[in-house]
Sequence to fold (292 residues):
Amino acid sequence: MRKPRWGLFGALVATAVVCGTSTSVLAAEPKVIATQPQKMGNGWARVYVALDAKGAPLALGVSLDKDALEGLPKEPNSTSRCFDKNGNGKMDEHECIGDYQFTFTVPEGEAAKAIAPFKWVSLNWNPHGHIPPAPPPWAVPHFDFHFYMAEREAVKMLRPGSCGELIDCEDFKKATKPVPPKYVHKDHISVDAAVPDMGNHLINSKAAELQKGGPEFTHTFIFGAYDGQITFYEPMITRAFLASNPNMCALIKQPEAWQVAGSYPTKYCVRYLDRVGRYTVSVEGFVERPAN
Fold:
């Protein structure tokens, strides 16, 4: 297996995320701080934070070796957030969420301080996509990149059950409690896609793939919620789109206000860095927001 060249990756990703910023920011080389890698497919996955010369956040992202897209499980995980909904004593098809999850804690110190309130990241591989009530276009092989503000231990307390997407019914009620309108863009709506060990998903109702006659699903953005709070930001990207070696950014629809003060991204980006053979999926364009 090819030895990772992280130093070169750091230089390349720093160059990518500062495109379009001022020359004063570019005067000093940005710093890239990464987690230890985790094995994924035939390659490795890492989480990284890119900081500018003043220590402000440029990006929070996940880096995947090109080999990580190969050798992935082709069948759903039969132990992932399962519930015997029909009571027959075994886990049948559609009684497990079926994803494979990799979790990363944001590196401590200046990186964690810079990207607060974001605390940890989960990368989820879905070999067959999502089960109902998720929209049908999303039933294709894809990755979910969850950037969490909620504490990991609190998220783990969301139990499997018979409601929503196999979540405990009491947890479902709390997960689907409406977020006050000023804290989420009006286009992001609940379809009761609440998931154990995750939360509710507020989907972009205007996403192209959800419109009649729309294009195939390639990428979209979701807000996570629980008990009336925004708990994660989520770019969702198909494996096929990643494998096409993209280089793009899309705006995140912004709310009117924020529940917790901190740095929040305004866009998500999907890139292939050819010189190091890595894909990155990141949230960028951070702006400091007050709580109100």
